[in-house]
Amino acid sequence: MSLSLSIADGVAEIALDDGKVNALSEQMLESLLAAIAEAAKADAALLIYGRAGCFSGGYDRKLIAAGGPACDAMRAAGDRLTLALLDYPAPVVIASTGHAMAKAAFMLLLADYRIGAAGAFNIGLNEVAIGMTMPAAAMPQARARLAPQWLNRCALQAQTLEPEQALEAGFFDELATGGDLLERAREKARQLAALHRQAYRETRLLLNAPLRAEVAAALAAS
């Protein structure tokens, strides 16, 4: 199974594991969106993580190379994921269990708290490096969430970062060793879940409102 959802004690856990690089195909994205919707219905704090060594390599590269309707559908699902994460009514924590590239790195930028695995892992926005112009709806996310001194290197120059650099750039809030990563992420999800939910939800919406408006305008114009 490429995705599993469990909800217990006010925390929903979504685990991505396709046995490979957790490519965000249309099928994976639709499954992820359905799991997020179910977690939101339960008013649960959300924790998303990947398989050991890889959170996700981003969009399915084969579909990007082929283009056409299947690629368009994948990107449309990815845009809906962006809005779903921005609109989520409870805390969102991501444990990046290894590599996180392109769309997966943007997922990190949309979470409330991000814990990265320490080690020899790659994190970055590699769109330009693989011949893609950065999507108009993606640029506001990079500008809003990355440290200014890293924006050019990450978004334009497609620099691949080590976890320590990704922490400095703004992809992560902290790093943890592989054995401690999930427990630390669960601890953080429980901590955020214990905050006053209505106040958290309304403040989160206020915090995300300017970015959401920019993203929605870019999507409407595309």
What does the model show?
By secondary structure, the chain is α/β, with parallel strands linked by helices. Helix content is 51%, strand content 18%. The chain contains 9 helices and 9 strands. Helix 1 links the parallel strand 2 (11-16) and strand 3. Helix 1 packs parallel to helix 3. The protein is globular and about 45 Å long. The model has no long low-confidence stretch (mean pLDDT 96).
What are the main properties of this structure?
single chain; 222 residues; alpha/beta; six-stranded mixed sheet; 9 helices; globular
Beta-strand percent range: 15-25%
Proportion in helices: 40-55%
Describe the sheet with the most strands. Answer: 6 strands, mixed
Strand order of the largest sheet: 1-2-3-5-7-9
Unreliable sequence segments? none
- Mean pLDDT, nearest integer? 96
> Whole-number radius of gyration?
16 Å
Alpha-carbon distance between the two ends: 34 Å
* Extended strand count: 9
